[in-house]
Amino acid sequence: MLNNRNFRIVLSFVAALLLWGYVVGYVDNTTTKSIRGIPITLTHVAELGERNLAVSGMNLESLDIEVKGTRVAISELNASDVTATVDMASASKGENDLTIIVRAPLGGVTVTERSATRVTVMVEDMVKKEVPVEIGYNGTFGEGQSGNTLNMSNSRITVSGAESLVDTVTSLQGTIDASRVTTSPTDISCKLQAVNSEGNPVDNVTLAHDTITVTTVLSERKEVELIVPVDDNSSDGKVRRVLAPETIGLVGRADALAKIDSITAITLDVTNIEESGELPIQVELPEGIGLADVVSSLVAELTVSDMSTKVINFTGSDIEFRGTKIAYDYSVPTGTQIAVTLMDSADHLLGITKSDIKVICDVTNYSSGTVTCPLVIESADKDVYGMVAAPEAVDVSIVTK
Fold this sequence. Notes:
Elements: H1 2-27, E1 30-43, H2 45-50, E2 53-58, E3 62-70, H3 71-76, E4 83-87, E5 94-99, E6 101-103, E7 109-114, E8 118-138, E9 145-152, E10 156-162, H4 163-166, E11 171-177, E12 186-195, E13 205-207, E14 211-227, E15 230-231, E16 238-243, E17 247-252, H5 254-257, E18 262-264, E19 268-269, E20 277-280, E21 290-291, E22 299-306, E23 308-315, E24 319-322, E25 328-331, E26 337-344, H6 346-350, E27 357-362, E28 369-379, E29 386-390, E30 393-400
Parallel strand pairs: 1-4, 8-11, 14-18, 15-19, 24-27
Antiparallel strand pairs: 1-3, 2-8, 3-7, 4-6, 5-8, 8-10, 9-14, 10-13, 11-12, 12-14, 14-17, 16-22, 17-21, 20-22, 23-26, 25-30, 26-29, 27-28, 28-30
């Protein structure tokens, strides 16, 4: 009996000693841990909105810290447990130097070091504007097929935020995975992202609706000619050159697409536009036909430049007679000279030579004798803004062979 009692005493002592060692060596022992990239979160931002203010940016997006605590507490600590917040309740327009509050909620853990204690938050006037929604498709469709957006729950949505950010937003873009598009109309929830004119994301703005419902269907695709008429009634002597896409991608039913060979856009009026830039191309499509590509890509490039002139001299032998009859010979007086004045930008005129220009006399409606034939000036492969011949007409002798 005594031996058993002594054994239990010794066993209890050893257990107590081990427990004491565990507490001293692990539970009560302290250690440190580094946590990087803790996001800085702004609080009470809604109160800024009530004063028509909005955040445009911060000089820091995250910070690094070092914490100290017991081994048990540190082992249980996750990066997501630590928060770094900035109170915006008292912020005003301009730059605000504010304190970063770091909290590690677990007991026994303290923050000993941090990479930053303050942050500069820029606050501006809040503005709003409405922008179009554009839907694109990500992935691969079958040959000759494309996603066709039939309807959107919102085609235009209001964007609000700091003035400098909202001013850069040109549209809201959503992307639908090609694998979700079927031959039957399907409603798909689509997340939207504000983007600028180059298609880059614009963050820190608020969308009235950040998700919309898009009705889409798998359709046939066809490339057709795009005709873009241009009106230019300018009187300032500038050259206005419009470069537009030559084709446009359409989607729709195969039978409807088969009837379409070209699409004519609404006429672009460039009269007296002073600066070069992009002009949106607007098209009216037949019912059941949609655009295969994002609408923002359908633009024309307008170049505005000073008018220059270039004179190219021709002789009578350079005249090309059209509409001739085999029974007659056609000639102009010896020594005939024609000066053709080309009008365009200096850069464009630089590459044009005599071989690019044709001086034409159409004699289709003339019979034998001497007639006065108006001259027509054509450029073979060069698009010249204006061409004038002097003289405007020549005498042509038509005689029987």
